[in-house]
Amino acid sequence: MTWVWDAYTIFYIAKRKGLAVEKRDVNDARSMLVVKENELVQRASYNLTLEEQKLLCYVISKIKPGDKEFQRYIISAVDFAEVCGTDKKNIYRDFKRMAENFLSNKQWIKVGDNNIFFSPFSEAEYNVKNGSMTVVLNSRLKKYLLKIGVQGKYTKYELWNILSLKAKYSIRLYELFKSYSYQYEREFEIDDLKKLLCAENYKVFGDFKRYVLDKGVREINIYTDLEVEYITKKEGKEHKVKKVVFKINKKRIDDKLLAYYETVDRINEKNKQVKGQISMFDYEIEEELKCAKEVNIYPAD
């Protein structure tokens, strides 16, 4: 028998977890996927605020699979606040600030021995009258965001995974872990990881561990579809920490649901999903549901 991921299944599992949910049509979901070429995820470094990272991901999630060119995206401040759970009180002020910052912040991608510097958006215009931002992604990003289709060469995740992350470095850590999740384990030189995260200001490893690694891993384990743990490696005569090894696992289906509804509850005061905006349905569904049935997560009938 082929198991189908439907609204009843989602509702039943979530109800067993004691979460506040409402039934919904699965066809309403599946739109908000953030898809990036691995090179952009694994080799790019950019120093954006937490909200700027969410806005960039939000815009990227609007790219359609068949798009050959970047579109002009008009993002409502109110809609962005509702979807991403940002503070509505100062959203108009923050939107104006983000539009200005996007054109001044630089992103670099290391290709061979060359570093390419560019802004994520070629245009970012704030409309005071209707409280919206019109943006156009930089054409240099085409090779990393358009016509992506080779399995294993790109990173794909659903927008909800980053919406409850509160630390600036957590989103970048999540994307890195997601891109390497098929390996289940990934080792980084501490200095290389700091460069990727733009966290070179943490000179003492103890501070980097506390404010970047521990905080990021904790948030990712609670609010995303991944479970991560790490160990450190010391080297040299001084016996200093030089490397960090992350173990990355995808969560079981019921744990994903728990993380998903934790996020929905956080970003929506009325515990109602924003229809068509947050999705968690683009997985290898049939195999996971077979496993769910075997452990009696929901009834066989």
**What is the strand tally?**
11
Indicate the low-confidence ranges by residue numbers: 1-8, 17-31, 270-287, 297-301
Oligomer: single chain
Average pLDDT, rounded to a whole number, is: 79
End-to-end C-alpha gap: 11 Å
Structural class, judged by helices and strands?
alpha+beta
Order of helices and strands: HEHEHEHHEEEEHEHHEHHEEHH
Helix amount: 25-40%
Number of helices: 12
Please state the CA-atom Rg, rounded to the nearest Å: 20 Å
Shape: globular
Q: What fraction of the residues are assigned to beta strands by DSSP?
A: 15-25%
Widest β-sheet, arrangement of strands? 2-4-5
- Main β-sheet, in a few words? 3 strands, antiparallel
Can you describe this structure in just a few lines?
This protein has helices at residues 7-16, 38-43, 50-60, 77-84, 91-102, 142-145, 160-163, 170-179, 190-197, 205-223, 253-267, 285-294; strands at 33-37, 44-46, 73-76, 107-111, 114-118, 121-127, 132-137, 154-158, 185-189, 226-235, 240-250.
Question: Could you list some keywords that capture this structure?
Answer:
disordered N terminus, three-stranded antiparallel sheet, globular, alpha+beta
Description:
The protein is of the alpha+beta class. It is about 40% helix and about 20% strand. The strands form 4 sheets. A 3-stranded antiparallel β-sheet has the order 2-4-5. Helix 8 packs across helix 10 (about 205-225). The longest helix has 19 residues, at about 205-225. The radius of gyration is 20 Å and the shape is globular. The N and C termini lie close together (about 10 Å). The model is unreliable at about 1-10, about 15-30, about 270-285 and about 295-300 (pLDDT under 50).
